[in-house]
Design brief:
This protein is an all-beta fold. It is built from no helices and 12 strands.
């Protein structure tokens, strides 16, 4: 009954039939990121739950399958009112805020094949017609501009 905002297939053979789905159900006033099994009719295991006033912008598994990153814009207290990047780790079942942008939004992003860097689209408004592409370490450090007026960042699989 919810609206699927984003999804991603698992990147490793040990999780080959799994995917992540970000879904919002405005009828119950919340959304969640769930881990589901391909072909299942069940909703799956909710890993992250959020109020329906959160807008999920992108969602990607970490290359080793140990967790995932997601970008979200929150209108209220759980996530801040900007679009930031967050990391969920399966081992700890915890969400950690990676970026701390106050006037910018992380929209689309891509993770390097070794999982150590993230290239992201950073805009001054959620619906801005242009954005810039930045790269950083997965922990949020070493943030640097790659290209102005660019969109849809993707990682070259031949470069770590």
């Amino acid at each position: 009954p919810g609206i699927v905002c984003a999804y991603d297939w698992a990147p490793v053979a040990s999780r080959a039939n799994e995917l992540l789905i970000a879904e919002t159900d405005f009828g119950v006033g919340r959304g969640w990121i769930s881990q589901v099994t391909e072909g299942s009719r069940a909703r799956g295991t909710a890993l992250v739950t959020y109020e329906s006033f959160t807008q999920l912008l992108d969602l990607r598994w970490l290359p080793d399958g140990s967790g995932f990153l997601f970008s979200a814009k929150r209108y209220g207290s759980v996530f801040n009112e900007n679009g930031n990047l967050y990391e969920y780790t399966f081992a700890t079942k915890a969400v950690r805020q990676v970026t701390r942008f106050e006037n910018d939004f992380v929209r689309a992003f891509s993770i390097s094949p070794d999982g150590q860097r993230v290239v992201l689209e950073r805009a001054t408004a959620i619906d801005a017609p242009t954005s810039d592409v930045w790269v950083m370490r997965r922990d949020g450090s070493d943030l640097r501009l790659v290209a102005r007026d660019a969109r849809a960042p993707a990682w070259n699989p031949k470069r770590p």
